[in-house]
Amino acid sequence: MPEDPIRRKLVIQYAPKLTACGVHLAKGGVRILDGVDLEVESGQFVAVIGPSGAGKSTLLSLLAGLESPDAGLVEKDGVPLVGPGAVAYMPQSDLLLPWRSVVANVSLGLEATGASKREAREKAMRALERFGLEEFARVSPWALSGGMRSRVALLRTALLGRDVLLLDEPFGALDALTRRELQEWLIGVRDELAATIVLVTHDVDEALLLADRVVVLSRRPARVALSLPVELERPRKMAVETTEEFAQLKGRLLEALGIVH
Ligand SMILES: Nc1ncnc2c1ncn2[C@@H]1O[C@H](COP(=O)(O)OP(=O)(O)OP(=O)(O)O)[C@@H](O)[C@H]1O
Ligand SMILES: [Mg+2]
Questions:
Q1: Considering every ligand atom, which ligand is closest to the CA of 32?
Q2: Is residue 57 part of a domain?
Q3: 25-37 residue pLDDT tens
C-alpha cells in the first residue's frame, strides 16, 4: 500500500490542527509539564521523543482530552479538547481484552461509539482483511505474538475513524525485527488512517522514519527542547536510514536529547 499523493492532499486539507500552548501541569506536587508548546498542522505526523519520565504520555493524555492543564491551552481546530471521544488514542499498554477474540476486540471501540454489535463486527472484519489480519480474527489476544497484538491494538484505534490519532509507543515492547516490520506497515497504511497523527516513541530512528516533524521534550519538567522538520522524501523506505541527510537529522536529535554533544 504505497502512499497516495492525492489522498495525502485531501488529508492535509481536512484533518484538524492540534495545538498545545504554554501548557503547565503538576501532579502530586511534581511539576511535569513546564510551558510546553506544540503545534501539529493539518494532516501532519509528529513524533514526540524525550527521556523516560519526561512527560510524553502525560502530554498525549492532555491531547486526548483525558487530563486538563493547570495553565495553557490544548485545542483541536481552535476548540478546547475536553473529555475523551474527540480523538483516537492508543495508550502505552495495548489494553486488549483477553476474553474477547481479535475481531471482538477490534469492534469494541465501534460498539462504544454506538454502532450495533453486528455492524461493528462486520466493519472490524473488513478492516482485519484490509490490513492482512483476517486469519487471526477468531483467536484470543493471548495467542498472538507481540507484533500481532500491536497491529490489532493499532487497528482498533484507527477504526474509530477519528481525524486525530494519538499513539503512545505503539511498538515499544517489540524486538527490533518486528518493530521494523510494523514501522513499514504503518508507513504503508498511513493514508488509510487519514488523520493528524502524534506518535510518542523512545526510538530516534523510528521518529525520523515516520514523522514530518520530531519534537524533543527536555527532562522533567518538560519543555520543548527542539522541534525539527523532517523533509526526507516520501514515500519513505527503510534505506533512507543510510543517507547522510538522515544521519544529520539524527545527530541533531541526539544532541537535543543530551546523548551526544
Ligand atoms: N500522580 C502522579 N504524581 C506524581 N508524579 C507523577 C504522577 N503521575 C505521573 N507522575 C510523574 O510524571 C512524570 C511523567 O510521566 P509520563 O508517564 O508522562 O512520562 P513518559 O515521558 O511517558 O515516560 P516513559 O518514557 O517512561 O513512558 C514521571 O516522572 C512520573 O513519575
Ligand atoms: Mg510514557
A1: 1
A2: yes
A3: 999 999 999 999 9
Give pLDDT, residue 54: 94
Q: Which residues of the chain have pLDDT under 50?
A: 1
Closest approach atom of ligand 1 to CA 52: 25
Q: Indicate whether this model's pTM tops 0.90.
A: no
Please give, one letter per residue, the 3-state secondary structure of the chain: CCCCHHHHHHHHHHCCCEEEEEEEEEECCEEEEEEEEEEECCCCEEEEECCCCCCHHHHHHHHCCCCCCCEEEEEECCEECCCCCCCEEECCCCCCCCCCCHHHHHHHHHHHCCCCHHHHHHHHHHHHHHCCCHHHCCCCHHHCCHHHHHHHHHHHHHCCCCCEEEEECCCCCCCHHHHHHHHHHHHHHHHHHCCEEEEECCCHHHHHHHCCEEEEECCCCECEEEEEECCCCCCCCHHHHHCHHHHHHHHHHHHHCCCCC
Q: Ligand 1: list residues with CB < 6 Å.
A: 27-28, 30, 32, 50, 52-58, 92, 220
Q: Based on the domain organization, do 194 and 80 belong to the same domain?
A: yes
Note whether residue 261 is domain-resident: no
Residues 13 and 51 occupy one common structural domain: yes
Domain co-membership, 175 together with 80: yes
